[in-house]
Amino acid sequence: MERNISLDKNTLVQYAKDFALLNGLAMRTSENPNSSDVIEHAPFTLFPSYFDEDSFYFAKNLQKDIQMLYYKVSQDVPFLIDTHKNIVNHDNLIRGLCDTLTKVSLDPSPQKFDLVLQRSDYMPHVNKNGKIEIKQVEVNNIAVSMGGLGEVVSNLHRNILDIFYKNVILNQQDVFLPPKTNPATLCAEGLVTALKYYHIIDYNNDPNKGMLLYGNLLPVNSACILTVTEDESRNIFDQRHIEAEVQRLTNYNVKNFRIPLSQLNSRLSLDDNKKLILDKKYEIGLVYYRTGYSENQYNDTTKDWDTRLLIEKSAAIKCPSVGLQLANTKKMQQVLANRGILEKYVDDNDTIDRILKSFAGLWGLGEGSDEEKKIVDDAIGNPDKYVLKPQTEGGGGNYFGEDIARLLKSLSLDKLKCYILMEKLNPLLTKNILVRPNQEAKVNQVVSELGIYGWLIVDKSNIFPNKNCTYYSYMMRTKESTTNEGGICIGAACLDSIIFKDFEKDFYRDLI
């Protein structure tokens, strides 16, 4: 492969770091997570990583069905409560979500539309026959992240290929690269479209009039967006990319308030029509959560669960609703791997087959059945074949190797119900250079995880047709093959993009 410019590794790495910071591929430091005075580039790979093309398009084409499945599950309150009934006594987050959902079901919100903004994560699994199969790792319905930074790293890789490996990008880009990814724009389009739907009037009498009232524009005095954040926002630039796209798409006419959950209890109220009001002044049409997915993000002192309940009871569109978040647990992932359960929510057998094809082996625990005992005994004897997953979100928390055997032996059946066992995948191994702040960049054997973004808006009264995004976008995370966890913010993985041919020797040749 011909290169345009002779270079060494350090020159290319420094160029990539400069490009990253120039274009907002950045994070606040762990030492100063609430200040942008000192920032660092987010961890990224120097080159796009090889990914099987058929697997990529299989996952991308499945996204429409996955987001509809999770929406339908989120509307089945008895099923959600029953699925988690054995977990609530041991998991404060699940208990809080179930309590909130139960209370809202008794005092329903006047919210007319639901928004699903989702990222489904997959890994290429090499089966016993050496064939690549795409397998779902998890689904994310809340605080869907890395859309902003993922878009920048894709641009970075295209820039590197264009300047330093020109014939890859120019001569055969349609063959070797997927369509340009823009998840920040996709996420922003979902938020803005939901806000437009919030403003539909004459809804019950004349839905067509409501749809045509503003055309493709928001009203002059549009309701606002409330972005609910953590007290510390190290990953703020990922969020700012989406926020900037929202402003661009609305011609800078929509106010977006970024407020930590811990500060909202005294500032939010409901009017007589259950409209959500901030500071007794601003109508909130859309609540966008970038927090609330972990037990430690709810504080009794600041009455955060009361705040969540107030928001759920309001007319504002929630991203996500509490039902959609409860549909997002590891326990639900395991339950949905049952064909009989899927048939309740998916009508088409071919779609069910494709969804099931994407699932790895998943097993519930704590029931004490003979089948479960066989799986548990095998996991104790062969722990490297499994991953033990609690209900934790946000990266980290999974158990591997001998820790699995230890926990399966020591936990009571009641506490085991809070976990699921998942088949440990045999990921496709490739090579790349991982670029992290203040660390040497060197060639590593790596594995990658693909995330597919999509959104869906559903009319709860079935008057308007479902509104799906017109395209689906992606991001990729890559880590050393010896690392178990894969979160960007916890430092385990690097942002990456895709190439459909393995140019490993061309990229690394003579790079010293």
UniProtKB/TrEMBL annotation:
Example of a GO MF term: magnesium ion binding
Residue ranges occupied by any Glutathione synthase substrate-binding domain in the UniProt entry: 223-327
Cofactor(s) in the UniProt record: Mg(2+)
Enzyme Commission code(s) on record: 6.3.2.3
InterPro entries (UniProt xref): Glutathione_synthase (IPR005615), Glutathione_synthase_a-hlx (IPR014042), Glutathione_synthase_C_euk (IPR014709), Glutathione_synthase_N_euk (IPR014049), GSH-S_sub-bd_sf (IPR037013), GSH_synth_subst-bd (IPR004887), PreATP-grasp_dom_sf (IPR016185)
Pfam families documented for this protein: GSH_synth_ATP (PF03917), GSH_synthase (PF03199)
Reaction it catalyzes: gamma-L-glutamyl-L-cysteine + glycine + ATP = glutathione + ADP + phosphate + H(+)
Entry GO CC: cytosol
Binding, ATP: 330, 389-398, 449, 479, 485
Superkingdom assignment: Eukaryota
Residues that hold substrate according to the record: 239, 477
Keyword annotations: ATP-binding, Glutathione biosynthesis, Ligase, Magnesium, Metal-binding, Nucleotide-binding
Entry-linked NCBIfam families: glut_syn_euk (TIGR01986)
Similarity comment: family membership: Belongs to the eukaryotic GSH synthase family.
Protein name, entry field: Glutathione synthetase
Annotated organism of origin: Strongyloides venezuelensis (Threadworm)
Source taxonomy: Eukaryota, Metazoa, Ecdysozoa, Nematoda, Chromadorea
